Here is the input.
Amino acid sequence: RPEDLVNLFAFIKPDHVPPETPVKRLPELTRDFLLRRVKEDVLTDMPPKLIRDAYVELTPEQRTRYELAEKEGVVHLNELGDTITIQHVFELVLRLKQICNFDPLTGCSGKLDQLQADLAEVASSGRKAIIFSQWVEPLEYLADRLAEFGALQFHGRVPARERQSVLDRFRNDSAQHVLLMSYGTGSVGLNLQFANYVFLFDRWWNPAVEDQAINRAHRIGQKSPVLVTRFVTPGTIESRICEVL
Here is the structure.
């Protein structure tokens, strides 16, 4: 009740906590006022969300570039000695993750080859798919390579005034089978329950952000199972990150 909340918030102000009441007891004292519900508890009639990890080998071009970048990167870190910072390590990790997406010189990509095969099935069945990436550049490159599937883009470089029209086209045009989204722009606040396939082209650092992205499709109004594919390249920094996640 509103009056209970008012009393609660007044109570938890530091100057209202009785001396004999340790702050550590606040969770116990406020437990009766809090209600946490998760989707699985409430929406028992939701169709299932099926998640699979697709292990895709790097192309020969990618593997050559990856091993070279890894070797040179480790040498550089060792040369830094005591001046090394977490930022130096992070820059190498990002570089290796980007090569796992595409070879920077040839554009070859094991993930893209697999994605094109998967999307051919999606399009042939008249379904729609959302593809998430950590960066805008891969999405822009994918838009060209996936043009045959009517790929649309929704990320930070798309002007805000144009974003709703992009979503409307994706929803209403039967020729638009793919929506390319960045995690930052598309992970919250969107209702895309007419899409049945979600692809994580690369993994985000925080699994909760990935869940929010996936739930753009798996939400109230979804009538069919949502099939989620998370791409992983074996023997790379990406697979080690996935083990941590």
